[in-house]
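Structure in, sequence out. Go:
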């Protein structure tokens, strides 16, 4: 896999997890990101450094993470895709665990055009 593509998927996963933590807990800490993603603290430290460099997050003096406006665009887009895809898979009979895992894989690779058409199709078949 192209390192840039892998890096982009990792950024999307981390930003999505951070947004979910913010919504569920009201704050974001590295230790919670590690638990949410099932990764090590050093992995989170490495990736948060990259996310800060790209302007996606900022960290305060107490190491609480805030997603920037730039990062929020990616986080929300990824979370929306995940929720829509997993809901659809569950609605057609896929068990929840599989639906969530498959949505996580697809949310990164589906093109904007295909995702938009997918959403229009779902909307027209409600």
């Amino acid at each position: 896999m192209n390192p840039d593509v892998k890096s982009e998927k990792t950024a999307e996963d981390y930003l999505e997890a951070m947004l979910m933590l913010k919504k569920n807990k009201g704050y974001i800490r590295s230790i919670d990101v590690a638990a949410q993603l099932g990764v090590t603290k050093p992995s989170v430290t490495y990736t948060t450094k990259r996310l800060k460099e790209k302007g996606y997050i900022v960290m305060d003096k107490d190491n609480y993470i805030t997603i920037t406006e730039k990062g929020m665009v990616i986080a929300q887009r990824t979370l929306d895709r995940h929720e829509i895809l997993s809901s659809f898979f569950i609605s057609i009979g896929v068990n929840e665990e599989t639906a969530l895992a498959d949505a996580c894989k697809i949310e990164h690779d589906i093109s904007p055009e295909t995702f938009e058409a997918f959403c229009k199709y779902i909307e027209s078949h409600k």
